[in-house]
Amino acid sequence: MNNELAISLPIPSSIPGIVWPVIPTPMAAQLLSQIHYFNLSETFSPSTLLTLQFTQLVEVINFARKTVPYYRSKFSHLPVITNGEQLREIWDEIPMLSRLDLQQAKDAIFSESPLPSHEPSELMTSTGSTGMPVTVKGNVATQFFWNATTLRDHLWHKHDFNKTYAVIRFTENPAAKPPHGAVFENWGPATYRVVPTGKCHHLTICTTEEEVRWLRDINPHYLNCNPSTLREITQYFAAHGGVPDHLTMVHTNSEIVEPDLRRMVKEVMGVQLVDTYSTKELGYLALQCPEQEHYHVQSENVLVEIINEQGKLCEIDEPGRVVATALHNFASPLIRYFVGDYASPGEPCSCGRNLPVIKRILGRQRNMLKLPDGRRIWPSFTSNGLRLMDMFSGAQFQVIQKSLSEIHINLAHISPFSAKEEENLRAQLSIVFDYPFRFIFNYLEKIERGPGGKYEDFKCEVA
Ligand SMILES: [Zn+2]
């Protein structure tokens, strides 16, 4: 199926007069070759995938030991590594890299002799939702795999490249301000090098009213934005109607997608929500399966381990910390890096792709609810048919746990509830959160976003 799709792309020929078989430009040829390989590698058995990943990891680890000051000292206890099988045997001895380690390492995480063919590299700073900035380097090699995986995502979800794409995302570009936003002639470097595309419109994050007006004006086929932006837009359409009629699919990234958001988007806008899991430091970690709501690890880009509190790989459905190793970043190798998120592995997928399955991405520890008995759980915002989105319909909301007994519900864009209504809501909230917390309602003008326009529906401030 994917092969047929890739073959049927209207790829322009770089040699006049030759229209079949097409001779693509060198960059298009590299990307297409990668796509064809991905179509094969995603069907490899899990053990073959691991063997190939470790063959690549030998290169990364040995290069890091030789040229990166941070790893030179951290890996001094390891034997000489000559092959993937041996590396796999000693993998548990390779220390993990926390966000704090990375922050403190500063320039010591950069290679002193970067590979010339991977250059130029550029500095990339990520604040993350923890507000703890880290800086790594990306280069031609990491960008290539970013572009190839972006293309794979378009192909998996059968995007029609002629259609209009719209992006709502924070940007410094003054042209992207409302009411018109910025217009680009194509979807970007991952696609236009291979295939002609429709236009791409970009709006920076603004008010929901401005975002909706812009969407109705452009009437795009595809929309890409953060889940929190999507939640606000969907709530607006639920209250006012007028969903742009060309819209066929919505893509999200950067934040956690709560299961209720998928349902709400389907109910209100009649389209599917497709999520991707990526970070600035590592590129793509996982793409959503075209046939299921879970994710497939991008094993050709990254080795993902989901690890429990005992330091062992999690079982199916067991939540654990996401630890990732970048396979192609030789400029600032990230080896067994704690991404900061929790996730749970899923059963093998029935779609025919053998790439490991992530069933749910759960977010950061501070997005976990802490119960008085010491348990930490991921709040689901829905229980026994009660849903937060219905209780606060039309409002922007954020839930903050202040102590083991107190939860604040911050609400914006809504008239305050009466004392009686608040009392009813408290009873429902006790069911949703499975404990009779003291629920305090705060009515705000606006709920501010975190660094880079990120937004957290739930935050726990209990140490
Ligand atoms: Zn699948």
Topology:
Blueprint: H1 2-8, H2 26-41, H3 46-67, H4 69-74, H5 84-89, H6 99-105, E1 121-126, E2 134-139, H7 140-156, E3 165-168, E4 182-184, H8 189-192, E5 200-203, H9 208-218, E6 222-225, H10 227-240, E7 249-252, H11 259-269, E8 272-279, E9 283-288, E10 295-297, E11 302-307, E12 320-326, E13 337-345, E14 357-363, E15 369-370, E16 376-377, E17 382-383, E18 386-387, H12 388-391, E19 396-401, E20 406-412, H13 419-432, E21 438-444, E22 458-460
Parallel strand pairs: 3-5, 3-6, 6-7, 7-8, 19-22, 20-21
Antiparallel strand pairs: 1-2, 4-5, 8-9, 9-10, 10-14, 11-12, 12-13, 13-14, 15-16, 17-18, 19-20
Helix pairs in contact: 2-7, 9-10, 10-11
This protein binds zinc ion (ZN).
Protein name: Phenylacetate-coenzyme A ligase
GO molecular function: ligase activity
Keywords: Ligase
Summarize the structure.
This protein has 463 residues and is an alpha/beta fold.
Instruction: Count all strands and give the number.
Output: 22
Q: Ranges with pLDDT <50 over ≥5 residues?
A: none
Main sheet properties: 12 strands, mixed
Task: Assign the CATH architecture of the largest domain.
Answer: 3-Layer(aba) Sandwich
Each distinct ligand: zinc ion
Overall tally of domains? 2
Provide the gyration radius in Å. Answer: 23 Å
Please indicate the percent range of residues in DSSP E strands (runs of 2 or more): 15-25%
What's the shape? globular
User: How would you state the average pLDDT, rounded?
Assistant: 92
Name of the CATH homologous superfamily of the largest domain: ANL, N-terminal domain
Distance between the termini: 50 Å
What helical percentage do the residues reach? 25-40%
GO molecular function: ligase activity
InterPro entries: ANL_N_sf, CapK_Type1_Caps_Biosynth
Protein name: Phenylacetate-coenzyme A ligase
Keywords: Ligase
